[in-house]
């Protein structure tokens, strides 16, 4: 009799379905840990708006901060040593998933863990940077949403030339320490001859000295490429561009909201919203390796007419008609 009961018990365990086992492993009231690591500052307006959209989308999907998930935000503030330290700390906590913003944090996270799922947003060239095996099949523990394709760097240059047609030279703020910095600069340099503009690269780590030296000759422009260092130095860069009368183009709108001239780039808020969908799928058992990296689906053009007026520039009506937002 005891033997028959034991066999019946084993049989009951054996026929439990994968769904039942997953349901037992992920009880609805279980608190799951979601860590958010930002490469730059967390107090910029676009990041706050993105994070709010992330929270809202998670709520719509049934995940509520303080109830069944705990969301832990860590800002890297553009300091690579700090980013690396935070990446190591978060990996040690083994959260259910880490969401990271900007390419500067993905590398340190992957060095710290190859098991904790990572969802990135606003990362340029994740394949060229070695973060994923391919865009369609990432293959490891990281996936997410690209900031842009390198061809967008040429678009920044063309927009700047449209709004400042007399420009004959431009400084390009870039980060030589990341693959994306090299890629963006290469595209910009490749289109410079066709636009009749001389390019002067300026390392983000020498922003003030580099811009001051470049501006001495006057009549120049400024292209600010995508980097966590750009976000960390947003106010300084915008102030220097205004001080030295440089027409400047940026990769996303937060710079223009802060007084910059023009921006064109992916809608970061939309990427946060999409990232929440990937987090939901991972919390429910899917793997980052199977979730394709996605290119931006929405771009936005923002123009600051007050800044244009201060620089003595006339914004073409065709450019204004295409703008998603105009600051007057």
Short description:
The protein is of the alpha/beta class and 328 residues long. The chain has 14 helices and twelve strands.
CATH fold descriptor of the largest domain: Rossmann fold
How far apart the termini lie comes to 86 Å
Described by strand count, sense and barrel closure, the largest sheet is: 7 strands, mixed
Listing every helix as H and every strand as E from the N terminus to the C terminus, the arrangement reads HHEHEHEHEEHEHEHEHHEHEHEHHE
Radius of gyration: 23 Å
Give the total of domains: 2
- CATH architecture grouping of the largest domain: 3-Layer(aba) Sandwich
Low-confidence stretches: 1-28
- Taken from the alpha-carbon principal axes, the silhouette is elongated
Q: What is the number of E strands? A: 12
How much of the sequence is in beta strands? Answer: 15-25%
CATH class of the largest domain: Alpha Beta
* Helix coverage percent: 40-55%
Could you characterize the architecture of this molecule?
This protein is of the alpha/beta class. The protein folds into two domains: 155 residues, Rossmann fold (3-Layer(aba) Sandwich); 142 residues, Rossmann fold, CATH 3.40.50.2300. The strands form two sheets. It has a seven-stranded mixed beta sheet, sandwiched between helices. Strands 2-1-3-4-5 form a five-stranded parallel beta sheet, with helices on both faces. Helix 4 crosses helix 5. The longest helix is centred in the middle third of the chain and has 17 residues. The relative contact order is 0.14.
